[in-house]
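Objective 1.3, modelling of assemblies. Example input:
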Amino acid sequence: MLERLHSWLRQATPAVEWNSVALSTLALLGRRGRLRITDLVAAARITQPGMTSLVARMATAGLVVKEADPADGRATLVSVTPAGHAYLEQIHERRAEVIAGHVRGLSPARLQSLIGALDALETLAAQPITPGAEPR
Amino acid sequence: MLERLHSWLRQATPAVEWNSVALSTLALLGRRGRLRITDLVAAARITQPGMTSLVARMATAGLVVKEADPADGRATLVSVTPAGHAYLEQIHERRAEVIAGHVRGLSPARLQSLIGALDALETLAAQPITPGAEPR
DNA sequence: AGAAACTATATCACAAACTTATATAAGTCA
DNA sequence: TGACTTATATAAGTTTGTGATATAGTTTCT
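Predicted structure (tokens):
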């Protein structure tokens, strides 16, 4: 059911210079504000050293900044820079464009049903992944 | 809109041993039957040598088989083995399980709207990606 | 307070998966 | 037939990720 939709959505993303883990990490930071590397690791399917190096690369590219956590000397707080936000926005627009082009081709009835389901889809997307998603 | 849904769907996929390009390639083969490497390249965001090695790895793992194309001596036809189909099915079930768990949590009204939109979503997913998806 | 145990991040060496450039073999066409 | 073109393979180098482990800071327990 939603299977094909997923791979379709993936392909609807115009080719970008950052991989999917990087993009969803950046998007997560954009939504939640500053987070520690450990928190980012928990949300992505990558190991801690992998996230450390990803954050370092994104910092070099100017998308994020790392600052010391005043509350915990071991931790590093990562947050999105204005350039990072602009980049996210740009990606968003490019995808929206592609998707809109296809949505426009739907029959009015289908379009209507899709609009009606937006709320449900948003609700779904807002749910954290719980079940067997993260194998212990 | 459909932005977050995408990353949600990605995370709803239980961790697997094959990356997303491999899975969608395998799924494509499952749907379309035997295809040449060049066709697979066109559908995935990967270069030809990358696809050649991916196919080689999947063949080693027993998910696909390569055969000479009787109609074109240069080409190789790739198709899914029974084990490959079983693997696809298994992934499908695992994902369906995770998704179903979440869908069940929706309010009846939202669930209804979602069901109503399935047809539209299927239609969308069946459309080839056209616009600026594949930069020349 | 002080030592032991735990936690957050970093570093290192190695492996996997790509990429670009190029080779090889097979088909196409004037 | 000979000059192109096309389909896949190979090779070398790069990027991105992993596992093991180090380092420094925080807790906990007595």
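The domain at 17-126 of chain B is CATH 1.10.10.10 (Arc Repressor Mutant, subunit A).
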